[in-house]
Design goal:
- The chain is α/β, with parallel strands linked by helices.
- It folds into 2 domains: about 120 residues, NAD(P)-binding Rossmann-like Domain (Rossmann fold, 3-Layer(aba) Sandwich), CATH 3.40.50; about 100 residues, Rossmann fold (3-Layer(aba) Sandwich).
- The protein is built from 12 helices and 11 strands.
- The strands form 3 sheets. Strands 3-2-1-4-5-6-9 form a 7-stranded parallel sheet, with helices on both faces. The protein has a two-stranded parallel ribbon with strand order 7-11.
- It is globular and about 55 Å long.
Length: about 270
């Protein structure tokens, strides 16, 4: 059974490759624009290309049985159609919460007619790295919406679930899996968890209005700042609950926020 992993240079796709190998997969093909950066294991077949070149996608899909589809809205429908034409028997896509930004990925996959499984993570734990520069510089983290609550999920857990589903059977067909971490936390609590992992007491200083917009514009650019703050505003008063999906599928707990911070402690020092 040949499995194609797209986005194999990315943070999740690259981990999916490793998880598949760890579970005993022997025919893994990695679709990447930069094989050197991906640093793939020798037993992995490399397919060079990117979603902007559909001919390279079609070539990579030759002889493929199952597909891990990384989220790329402009090409999702076309890639899913190519997968159907190539005889792919199962698409496992990474999208996001139902009805949100990545909904077009799920719609395109379903329209192809190929049996599918949607992986729906919310915020990644790695978004905590947005605070890394401030934490390296001192004990004060300036940020907005301290009481927004969600249950961020580790990319390692997303990849582990993707690999397990790809190697599974029809019990996953037509399913949507909401993926979260084990506990819902406010943004203020996340900063405290990072501090605990580092053995430090961090202070959360709330930014509002123009101060918040200026801060995020300086760190991520105007367009991204607008998108990020609007997302936080929409989340205010709508806490995300933690699900047991990662545990149910993997038979182990999802990675907690403090454990993630411990593993990435060097990036905060």
């Amino acid at each position: 059974m040949r499995i194609l992993v797209t986005g194999a240079t990315g943070n999740v796709g690259r981990l999916v490759v490793d998880e598949l190998l760890a579970l005993g997969a022997t025919e893994v093909r990695a679709f990447t624009v930069d094989p050197a950066k991906a640093a793939l294991p020798g037993e992995v077949e490399v397919a060079l290309g990117h979603f902007g070149r559909l001919d390279s996608v079609a070539a990579a899909l030759t002889g493929v049985d199952k597909l891990y589809l990384a989220p790329h809205l402009p090409s999702a429908s076309a890639v899913a159609e190519l997968a159907a034409d190539s005889g792919v028997r199962h698409i496992v896509d990474m999208s996001g919460p139902k009805g949100a930004h990545w909904q077009g990925v799920e719609d395109g996959v379903e329209a192809s007619g190929v049996p599918f499984t949607h992986l729906e993570p919310g915020e990644f734990t790695s978004n905590g790295l947005l605070w890394a520069a401030q934490i390296r510089a001192g004990d004060v983290v300036r940020d907005a919406y301290p009481d927004v609550v969600n249950a961020p999920v580790a990319q390692e857990d997303i990849a582990a679930v993707a690999a397990r589903v790809l190697l599974g059977g029809a019990e996953h067909h037509g399913r949507s899996y909401e993926l979260t971490g084990p506990v819902a936390l406010s943004r203020r609590a996340k900063v405290a968890e990072i501090g605990a992992a580092l053995g430090r007491s961090l202070i959360y200083e709330e930014l509002t209005g123009d101060a918040a917009r200026d801060h995020f514009t300086a760190t991520m650019g105007a367009a991204a700042a607008e998108w990020y703050l609007d997302g936080l505003a929409r989340s205010a008063g709508h806490p995300q609950r933690a699900t047991s999906t990662v545990h149910d599928l993997l038979g182990r707990p999802a990675m907690g926020y403090r454990e993630w911070a411990r593993r990435h402690a060097d990036q905060f020092r």
